[in-house]
């Protein structure tokens, strides 16, 4: 069984895991309604996407 020769320090393990992190979500403010939504997603309150009416608006 493989056993490490020395203890791995926090800084070394942190360097190894530097790419493992949460990515921030791409949240934007809608230009017309002022609501926050994910970009490239339909605004569920108005039913608009890219300036077109896609769904019936929720009430």
In short:
This protein has one helix at 10-16; strands at residues 27-29, 36-38, 48-49, 52-53. It is α+β, with helices and mostly antiparallel strands and 59 residues long.
Strand content: 15-25%
Distance between the termini: 63 Å
Number of strands: 4
Q: C-alpha Rg, in Å?
A: 23 Å
Could you walk me through the main structural features you see in this protein, from its secondary elements to its overall organization?
The strands form 2 sheets. The protein has a two-stranded antiparallel sheet with strand order 1-2. Strands 3-4 form a two-stranded antiparallel sheet. The protein has 59 residues and is α+β, with helices and mostly antiparallel strands. The model has no long low-confidence stretch (mean pLDDT 88). The longest helix is centred in the N-terminal third of the chain and has 7 residues, at 10-16. It is 12% helix and 17% strand. The protein has a domain at 25-59. The chain has one helix at residues 10-16; strands spanning 27-29, 36-38, 48-49, 52-53. It is rod-shaped. Strand 3 and strand 4 (52-53) form a beta hairpin.
